[in-house]
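Morning!

As promised:
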Amino acid sequence: MSQSTPNASARNQTWDEFTEGLWRQNPVFVMMLGMCPTLAVTVSAVNALSMGLATAFVLVCSCALVSLMRKVVPKEVRIATYIVIIATFVTVVDYAIQMVSLALYDALGAFIQLIVVNCIILGRAEAHASKNPPWVASVNALGMGLGFTVGLFALGAVREILGAGSLFGISLFGADFQPWVVMVLPPGGFFVLGSWLLGFAWWEKRKQRLAGLQTPAERG
Amino acid sequence: MSQPTTPTLPAPQATPTTTMILTLGLVATLCGLIIVGAYEGSLSAVQENRRIVLERAISKVLPGAERIVGYQASSGGEIAVADGGDNSPPGTLRFHAAYDAGGALMGIAAEGAAKGYADTVRVMFGYSPKCQCIVGIGVVSMRETPGIGDKILTDQEFLANFKALDVRLNGELKALANEVKAVKHGSKTNPWQIDAISGATITSRAVGKGINDAAQALLPRLLPNLEKIGKNP
Amino acid sequence: MKNKPLHPGAAVEIRSAPHVKAPRSVEQIMRNVVYSLLPICGFFVFQYGISAAFSIVAITASCLATERFFVKTGTQSGSLSDFSATITGILLALTLPPGFPLWMGAVAGFIAIALGKALFGGIGFNVFNPALVGRAFVQAAFPVAIATYTPSFLPGRFGEFIPSSLAWPLMVPADTVAWLHAKQLDALSGATPLAKWKFDGILASAGELLSSMSGHMAVGPSPVLIILCGVYLALRRFMDWRIPLAIVGSAGLTAWILFAIDPHSYPNPFFMLFSGGLILGAVYMATDMATSPVTPGGMWVYGALIGLLTVLIRYYSGLPEGVMYAILLGNAATPLIERITQPTPFGKSGLLSPKRRATYPLHPEYISREEANAVTPKKKSFKPGKKS
């Protein structure tokens, strides 16, 4: 921010837009949006990662298109337009996943189609993309999408490690590992999400405490 | 409303009807083009994927199959080569005939489904006309509890049930002579019974019911017409 | 030294009326519950040998360590000396199979305190019985290990561990069936009487279940012993007798009605009462003060609900045992039961005046956590010179 050249400041702003979704406003851990796929498909790292990337793709494409059309679309019909645009890209992703792997397609099940009603996408289209130029909207959407992917992966990795003793299908503990069945069942999603939130809250608190100890103004 | 406004200065309160319809139409056309493009582009790859998955499933229940042909049996008992589309009349059953390298019929693969513990369990089974029995099964899809219900994939004792599961028809060729059924673990006495996995009785029963329902419906139609599909067309 | 009761000769107390007798402290109650659990633990060890002893010690230690961690970090209130974590650990161990791998037991103990207690703020604030929260977690996580019982009174049980106990952390426990086979004890089944009834249709006699002594049945401590310990607690008013009675009565009645309708498909009510963990759950788990209703009417409703649910789950679900889920559901229903069973204060009801609910939400004998905590500072203020 303190840079004086306009170029650097613009780059900073882009970086800001990008990291908003990736970290500060992470859809999973901060905004707690899109809980349905978050809890349902994160039984393994591969599922979580592909779900996250599919959502990120839909998010980036639809936000870019919405942003391109923001001056053309009258506000009376904007929701219908957004939904049609989002549904289009979800269909594209649907076909793409079928092309890549039918096993993955079966594992993700109805949650691919349910990306249409994922509140992150409609929320970003409405709140951000419809008010910003395509470049900014795309970068922000990419950040959000990757943030969602990271969140899903964080859940999926823990659930796969505990639930199956492997990561990306590679066994970590040998054949004698005792799987924690609960982790691949729906309650496991809640446990792991809760634990991550707990961890982040603790980290945040600790950071505040350390900051409070360091600045004398705060203490006084 | 009917007054045309200049496009450069859209009135904030009222958007003309034509603009709204035009916009929606434009968006729909654009999206339609994208969807159709994606569909056309992915169709061949998806179909290839489906064929590989199907062949893999069939060769698992009927090992050694060289060529697989899809058939459909209508409710009247007619058997014809499946057209590949989904427009067959209701009541039609689909099955696959597998032929060995010499072109002789090895067996029939068909799908059965029944409600399991969590969701529908879909199984594919291989039927051998020679012994009038089921010679192998494979699970197509299921969402049973990991560690308990999914033992139907791995439990060797359970899978041994399907090496020669008796599905003979009764005298009039109208139904199975003996209903295929999963029985309590350790109490299997007849070749048409399935020894359930202890602790996973509900899932085992679902497998049995899925096979039974499919065999009850398909075999009475299939058996009188067996010569028709007897050799590689 | 905190737990030392107020000695009457230690200091002259001058107080104005009303002269109320010193309230029972939470520590006193909890300590007595622990004492009453000791004979039951002893019986458990007598049944299953050193595996059972190590199981109790490991699970209790895990509970205490978790409690200490959360108290130290300020997440939860309370202290180790209030014995509540000890009770949680012992009860948890008693509900798990004796050969339950020790590392899984430690996980169960950690979850019991962390998820069942610390999350809600510590003793007195928990919504669900912590021991059962821990058990529910391991039931979902390790369904095979938790259903693997071994026969009781095996020869050499005091010199040898059940092999599954000593599984490496995160690893699959050893196969107890193979172990029994190697010991030439194949004839003894490791299935619990409830599992035998549910999956094989074999009924054990109620008398055998009552003593837990005959044969090599895979059962927990004797129901008679648990009832005796419960009677001690009830007589000394450390526990309310209504809840166990309501649970046993309701479970017995439900089982008896079903038995009367169709004696062939339903077992006799005594089998239902004395098998599984019903008696232990009724006496020690359902009576947990923080998670059960405080109104006398509410206790009856709560107990009846648990008894009914237990029998229904055992009969109609895929699980052989239903006490745990029944009590957890009863815990969840407790605030609702308390609301609908508020006593009507004297003078508030009449033919002419509409019935009004009491405004106080607590039973007069209920000891809240704040009150219990307030004991120590009060003592100090009355005896300024004494070191407590």
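Confidence is low (pLDDT under 50) at residues 374-388 of chain C.

Hope this helps with the figure draft.
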